[in-house]
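pls design
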């Protein structure tokens, strides 16, 4: 069976003639059904329909988008069993707790959080200067293209994930570009998104879906003058190629690329709770076969007897732990290539490093080690991401060298420091933390980085190459919405022509607005 694309309110055959199949990574066998590689003609059509939808939605209140998001979340939950079963087949991620009780509820929760933000409206930061009669707020930017990743078939999916929810909350139509690892799951989600859009009377081109394009057409797509913004999660090489095309056209593109998420474990912490930390690290690094963007891919320790014991303890845990299945053959190939590159740069293999050990596409749980001096000789090569169930231990000679290592890091999503709870590590902590703080979007104490809470205070972002821009987060409402908005200023505009959020009369009692530099709710009060 050849599956259709969703273009301008219709599920219809692609104009392309090339197709692909998803592969069950646990069995290495193709899954029934084929999906089209969309040619430029398909892309022209989705862009045109999205532009028309954007025009139709101009001036719509946040309530319209909130209603869609909430109805969509309801529809996902009603089809949860089918979605989870197909996602499991396409990704080999566990049904429970990962997909059924973890990722799917997170997905519907962030859709509903986006709905609340859209309805309440404070996210747009309405700002009123009564003396100058200048008023501004954030508004929709236009059609948003979302490129979803392979490792989160629900929570980061191009038609259901955080980018999708944020783009819709800002008032934009979305063109989803699915990931080849889970096209069927994306198709089911798009079916529910489209049904919810019909039930809430959204335009035909509000939600659209294509599955794959050529690299050249993908670059042409993100550089199209009618595309308002792009969200991308995936490999650094592909992301940078898209960024180059988008930058040439002046289109904002928000990238999540690569991150090794360094963990610094200080001597006093090992003296106090070595076994607990070894368990925390092993569980975090091997969770989901290491296929998390926040996987702890590098650990920095200070040389000593307890460090030797810690390394041996973790190596034993890695050797004894079950080997998980990778999302695809490409992930397996990339992981083995990454391990080989680390070894070539001077890292020594402790355990693992070979394909096999589990079901389907897999590789043994892998640990490598390198001394701090060698790391500082080749910092770029030795902090390259090997996406999967492995990590590199860097053994620093002393606190000064550990600080140098922190200063040499590229940008990351997260950075962690484990220290003694009684304060014996504070002097070393105070040397490392300031350096690490500038390299990561989220700094953690005494916890592994793998979980990403959907919280207004969360930053799932960081300096390059973790992302393409250190100011923005891909998780957390309302902050994540700003990526898909533009600041709109109104100078001397007559009151009846202003958006509801900028009139003297408040659109609702809960919306916060800045009036003459004072945040307030309710009607404009200037006394």
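designed seq:
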């Amino acid at each position: 069976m050849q599956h259709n694309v969703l273009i301008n309110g219709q599920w219809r055959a692609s104009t392309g003639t090339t197709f692909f199949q998803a592969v069950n990574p646990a069995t290495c066998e193709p899954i029934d059904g084929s999906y089209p590689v969309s040619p430029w003609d398909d892309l022209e059509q989705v862009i045109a329909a999205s532009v028309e939808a954007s025009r139709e939605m101009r001036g719509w209140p946040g309530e319209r988008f909130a209603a869609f998001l909430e109805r969509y979340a309801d529809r996902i939950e009603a089809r949860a069993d089918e979605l989870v079963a197909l996602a499991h087949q396409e990704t080999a991620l566990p049904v429970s707790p990962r997909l059924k009780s973890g990722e799917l509820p997170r997905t519907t929760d962030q859709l509903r959080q986006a709905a609340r933000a859209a309805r309440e409206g404070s996210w747009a930061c309405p700002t009123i200067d009564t003396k100058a009669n200048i008023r501004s707020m954030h508004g929709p930017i236009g059609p948003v293209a979302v490129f979803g990743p392979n490792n989160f078939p629900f929570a980061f999916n191009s038609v259901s994930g955080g980018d999708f929810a944020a783009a819709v909350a800002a008032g934009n139509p979305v063109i989803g570009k699915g990931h080849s690892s889970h096209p069927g799951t994306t198709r089911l989600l798009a079916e529910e998104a489209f049904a919810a859009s019909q039930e809430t009377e959204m335009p035909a081109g509000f939600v659209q879906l294509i599955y794959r394009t050529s690299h050249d057409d993908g670059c042409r797509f993100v550089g199209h003058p009618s595309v308002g913004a792009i969200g991308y999660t995936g490999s650094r090489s592909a992301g940078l190629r898209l960024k180059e095309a988008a930058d040439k056209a002046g289109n904002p593109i928000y990238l999540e690329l690569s991150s090794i998420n360094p963990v610094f474990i200080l001597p006093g912490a090992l003296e106090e709770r070595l076994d607990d930390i070894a368990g925390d690290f092993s569980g975090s690094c091997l969770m989901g076969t290491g296929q998390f963007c926040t996987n702890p891919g590098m650990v920095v320790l200070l040389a000593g007897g307890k460090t030797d014991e810690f390394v041996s303890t973790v190596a034993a845990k890695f050797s004894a732990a079950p080997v998980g299945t990778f999302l695809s053959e490409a992930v397996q190939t990339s992981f083995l290539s990454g391990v080989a590159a680390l070894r070539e740069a001077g890292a020594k293999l402790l355990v693992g490093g070979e394909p096999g050990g589990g079901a389907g596409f897999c590789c043994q749980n892998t640990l490598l080690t390198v001394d701090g001096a060698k790391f500082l000789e080749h910092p770029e090569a030795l902090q390259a991401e090997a996406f999967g169930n492995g990590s590199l231990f860097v053994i620093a000679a002393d606190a000064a060298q550990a600080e140098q290592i922190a200063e040499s890091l590229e940008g990351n999503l997260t950075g962690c420091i484990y220290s003694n709870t009684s304060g014996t590590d504070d002097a070393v902590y105070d040397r490392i933390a300031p350096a690490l703080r500038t390299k990561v979007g989220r700094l953690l104490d005494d916890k592994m980085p793998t979980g990403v809470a959907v919280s207004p205070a969360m930053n799932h972002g960081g300096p390059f190459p973790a992302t393409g821009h250190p100011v923005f987060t891909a998780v957390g409402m309302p902050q994540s919405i700003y990526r898909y908005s533009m600041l709109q200023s109104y100078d001397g505009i007559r009151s009846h022509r202003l958006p509801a959020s900028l009139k003297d009369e408040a659109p609702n009692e809960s919306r916060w607005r800045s009036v003459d530099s004072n945040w307030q709710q309710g009607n404009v009060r200037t006394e």
